[in-house]
Amino acid sequence: TSTRVINFGAGPSALPQSVLEKAAEGLLNFESTGIGIGEISHRSKEFSAFLARTESLIRSQLNVPPTHHIIFTQGGGTGQFSAVVYNMLARHRLLHPDLRDDQRTLDYVLTGSWSKKAHEEAIRLGGANVHVAVDARSYSKDGKAFDNIPPHAEYTFSRDPAMIYYCDNETVDGVQFSSDSNAPTFFPFELLKRRANSALLPLVADYSSSFMSRPIPYLAEHAVIFAGAQKNLGPAGLTIVIMRQDCIVDVDVAAKLGAAPVPKMIAYNTLADSKSIYNTPPVIPIYIAGLVLERMAELGGLTYFEDLNKRKAEKVYAAVRAGEEGGIFQSKVQQGSGSWMNVVFNILGEGAEERFLAGAEKEGMKGLKGHRLVGGIRASLYNAITAQDVDKLVAYIDKFIDDEG
Ligand code: PMP
Q1: Are 384 and 14 in contact (CB under 8 A)?
Q2: Residues 231, 312, 315, 369: which is the catalytic one?
Q3: Are residues 186 and 222 in the same domain?
Q4: 114 part of the active site
Q5: How far apart, in whole angstroms, are the C-alpha atoms of residue 270 and residue 7?
Q6: Which residue from 209, 226, 339, 382 has its CB within 8 A of the most atoms of ligand 1, so it is best to mutate?
Q7: Is 231 assigned a catalytic role?
Q8: CA 62, 178, 383: angle at the middle one, nearest 5?
Q9: Does 341 lie in the same domain as 214?
Q10: Is 337 part of a structural domain of the chain?
Q11: β-strand pairing of 239-244 with 342-347
């Protein structure tokens, strides 16, 4: 309706209008049960069927092979920062029971604030050596910003690590691994595969802010892929974890061998064995995510969104470049490392950022203020942002450049 603005927020973020309208009906009466979705038992046959359908919509659109389980849980991306450490160390314990803690390694690829946070949690939890495989700040323009995806030659991976961790899209810093396997900013999957010599890679990826925006390269090679729902998929409160069969280990057996005991609710075997209903799942977020996924499938699935998202990002980056050439903007990321989902830039000049934000708001565009840690402008272009929404933003940027220039 006309009271709604265009929400370029980074998450929670825009959801499709048609989904929200349908969800409003379901809130009162879920699938003609006469019971609202927030009131119905998570073990009812209607909800169980909905949950199974939601899983299969992810499986089919992302092409998740039968080797991988898809589970729904809570605790957000942040919860998984801890969960992956516990579960991957339990797995490593079962593979190599005789190693000491200081002989186990967790490799972290640092490309932004979220991988840095995950890395800090691994250090805090202990139980292994935490190694930085690469720190993108060393390759930045100013020596301290996360503004790039580093070249392959700069990564140093450990021998037989318990985990190799990366974040596909850094929501705060606006850098993302490329989806083009020929680009220098593509993740070095081939290098890792060669080194692993046919052993299963302990590769873990945070896909929180790029999940379902385009296909996931080398998905089948991943041990774990996780994502909070609140960007492309649904409201906050739901976390999706895709885990390869060999990462679902009996954590209690690992604990008997000396691994840290794993809290029941973050043990992957609890979640997988119970098919996501060990306890009460976040029923409403799952419902809305399911509706979003149904709509995605109707529109043409990930191919449709990959194409749309690519075009959206290209348009916004072109406008930012024009502003840069006019000496009004300053891009915050190096060429080739820019995120499709979160475009970040600075506006130069006294009071110019405030003028930009106030003008945008007047035209019905909100959520453009950068993350509190880094400032500047951030335009988040998740799936629910349409081509028309982006055209409106770009027209506004163009006009702003004209007016200020
Ligand atoms: N990882 C990434 C890439 C994120 O963007 C976020 C949240 N913005 C998180 C992790 C943390 O997620 P949550 O708030 O769901 O814990």
Answers
A1: yes
A2: 231
A3: yes
A4: yes
A5: 37
A6: 209
A7: yes
A8: 50
A9: no
A10: yes
A11: unpaired
- Domain CATH number, residue 379: 3.90.1150.10
CATH of the domain at 259: 3.40.640.10
Strand residues in 213-310 grouped as ranges (E): 222-228, 239-244
Q: Both 74 and 137 in a single domain?
A: yes
Q: Which of 247, 268, 296 is the last residue of a domain?
A: 296
Q: Three-state SS for 233?
A: coil
Which one from 147, 168, 206, 389 is the annotated catalytic residue? 206
pLDDT (tens, 9 = 90+) of the chain, 405 residues, equals 568 999 999 999 999 999 999 999 999 999 999 999 999 999 999 999 999 999 999 999 999 999 999 999 999 999 999 999 999 999 999 999 999 999 999 999 999 999 999 999 999 998 999 999 999 999 999 999 999 999 999 999 999 999 999 999 999 999 999 999 999 999 999 999 999 888 999 999 999 999 999 999 999 999 999 999 999 999 999 999 999 999 999 999 999 999 999 999 999 999 999 999 999 999 999 999 999 999 999 999 999 999 999 999 999 999 999 999 999 999 999 999 999 999 999 999 999 999 999 999 999 999 999 999 889 999 999 999 999 999 999 999 999 999 998
Can 206 be counted among the known catalytic residues?
A: yes
Residues in the chain, overall count: 405
Contact indicator for 382, 231 with CB cutoff of 8 Å? yes
Question: Token digits for 248?
Answer: 């679902």
Token digits of residue 212: 């379902």
The structure's pTM equals 0.98
Quick one: DSSP state of residue 64?
-
Give me the number of domains the chain comprises: 2
Tokens of 143: 């020596």
Task: Count the Cβ atoms, other than its own, within 10 Å of residue 317.
Answer: 18
C-beta atoms surrounding 351 within 10 Å: 9
CB 379 within 8 A of CB 393: yes
- Catalytic residue of the set 114, 135, 147, 340: 114
Measured CA to CA, the distance from residue 363 to residue 197 in angstroms comes to 56
Residues with beta carbon inside 6 Å of ligand 1?
11, 76-78, 114, 167, 171, 206, 208-209, 228
Q: What is the DSSP letter of 146?
A: -
